[in-house]
Amino acid sequence: MTSPSRALFEGTRQAARQASCLVVIALVAGCSSHPATSGLDAQAPNDGNVPDVGTGGQRGTEGDGGSVDAPLDVADAGPDATSDDGMAPAVDSSADHDPGPGAETWAPRDVLAQRMSSFFWNRADVDPQVAAAVQAATSADDLSTLAGVMLTDPRARDGVAAFFTWWLRLADLATSPKDDPDGIFTADVRASMQREAPAFGTSVILDGDARYETLMTAPYTFMDATLAQHYGVAGVTGSEMRQVAYGTPARIGLLGEASVLARFAGNTNPTWPPRRFWLIRQTVLCRRGLSSAVPINTSAFTISPDEPLRGQLDDLTAPTSPVNCHACHVIVNPVGYAFLKFNTFGQYWDDGPAGPFDDQPGTLPAGVFFDQDLTFADQPDLLRQLQALPEARECFAWIVLNFAVSRPSSSDPTSFASALEPSLPPLATAFQASDGDIRQLMAGVVRTPGFLQTTAPVTTDAATPGP
User: Fold this and answer.
1) In this predicted model, what pLDDT tens digit does every residue of 355-404 receive, in sequence order?
2) 399 and 286 in contact (C-beta within 8 Å)?
3) Count of CB atoms within 10 A of residue 17's CB?
4) Of the chain's two ends, which shows fewer C-beta atoms within 10 Å, N or C?
5) Which residues of the chain have pLDDT under 70?
6) Which ranges constitute the DSSP H helices of 79-154?
């Protein structure tokens, strides 16, 4: 039976060969009319700089038969072939197809090859086959086809993992200060947390349906034994990250993960609520501004064993009620309160020191972020509504585009350069039209003027060296 990864690789390879017989396909199949017997050759070993996000025998992992280095047993699929998992053809031949910037306007080919290697594989140097393919490309379609091939290579797991580590600033977890008299946030917990979101994201994008909705609303995450103990989940052993159901409707998707919630939290318990608003603003909405006009002393916010939750909320609201604060906190506070049930370590407090932490409903009023009020019943309802908004998907496309082109030192969208903004509208429109297909988004990024015409190479210490 043909595996989805093999069908995808063969369809992509055939589309590229019939379009221009790219060098990468020549190296795979000798530019013949017969199926190739191997993919991009050397699988680079992980040198430890990128977290090992193995997912227990899923596609692209050892022993599953889905490696591109395994013999392919499928017939020629033709230029319009789709994979078994429904991924669209690598090259769009429709009449209104935008061919992208002409090759004569591109950045130097060595810059593009390094950018492809960094984006898709998190490699600082360039595989010779990728370099040759980029050198031979004559259209944006050629590079988009190459992107599809690179996403089927096992090295793509390192690239996707690096994106989530950068996007969510998970390296900070190693040193984030916490008030931790009970020794909850140990070095082992911190290390496991740094692997959680990369493992989850890699599984969704490379092993699953690659949908943004799944990324944001899935009822599971990835845990090892250490992280499972932190969650209070039984039955998980060993150091391998594996898919585990949350087991509670209180958590969904990427932003329900303990690691993400711990990263976007203060050092006190409960955390200062606006920290969780910044999580939403920076990862889902990409909105600029909303900086505090007056510094606020957050050390005053403590849990009193004798005060009920409503009193706690009133105490937290009072310092942000002056007119110079309220204009922003009218939207900051409802989001922050929706996350109060998660402590500074990302653990769920169904019964905190001040009593039950009930789900907090709220309304984000029109005129700040949205044209209409957005009313939610609880934190999961807020996340479900936000992920469906075009603004959220545009934000995600903007973040991926910046990671791919330059990988800024900060993943805060307010720090991104404006030079890439002209590339965003068509990219975001295509992402929305694909029903939030992240693999298609990644392949589409390489067709943008921002990716093809930016001459500065990617400069990052995060990428691993090649073999």
Assistant:
1) 455 667 889 888 777 888 999 999 999 999 999 999 999 999 999 999 99
2) yes
3) 22
4) N
5) 1-97, 288-316, 322-324, 326-327, 350-359, 459-467
6) 109-121, 128-136, 140-152
